Amino acid sequence: MRYTRILCSIFLFSALISVLLPEMLHAQNDTFDAQFYAQKSQDLQKKGMIFLGSWATLNILSGSAGYILSENDTKYFYQMNAGWNLVNLGIAGFALYGISQIDASALSYSESLGELQNLDKVLLFNAGLDIGYMAAGAWLWERGIRKESQRLEGYGKSLILQGGFLFVFDLVLYMIHSPLTNDLIQLSDRLELTASGFKVHF
After folding, report:
1. Does the residue 18 lie in any domain?
2. How many domains in the chain?
3. For helices 109-147 and 150-187, what crossing angle results, to 10°?
4. Separation in Å, CA 73 to CA 5, 144, 150, 157, 202
5. Dihedrals φ, ψ of 194, to 5°?
6. What is the value of pTM for the model shown?
7. Structural domain for 73, as ranges
8. Residue 199 carries which DSSP code?
9. 48-89: per-residue pLDDT in tens?
């Protein structure tokens, strides 16, 4: 069972990279349109949330089955996996809805930049929270051993796994998304405000 979980995690992390890696290779936008970067950001967010929702669904299904079929601390490991990912699934769904309500083509330069910078900050903040989740999991695991509580041991192991996944997820998403933000910031250096609008300097 342990090796199955490890292989599953490796597969999912590989899938995350394969889904999001093309965004790292984005081509330079010849039109120098701020909305281009806002749309790229939205596309990346959608892929990320779909991946998070898929991870959550897998954990809910496997966690529910594992809770019924397993014993000892493994039973509670699966229980926490399922419960934790009900929240993840809700977050992914809410985020996808929020993204769908924003029209990237209607955003100004400052609005586009604000959206991208805010996402970068959120991802870094979330990565910090993820470290906290893993630390809490380690504490629960250790406390479970001392108290001979299989529930605490199982919950602790689950928090370490889920926190570790989210930490990698948020960092990968940040590393792929932050270049878009930097490109948009550099865009302002190539623009000259004129009476007729923006002029591009090459």
Report:
1. no
2. 1
3. 160
4. 15, 9, 4, 9, 62
5. -125, 175
6. 0.80
7. 32-200
8. E
9. 999 999 999 999 999 999 999 989 999 999 999 999 999 999
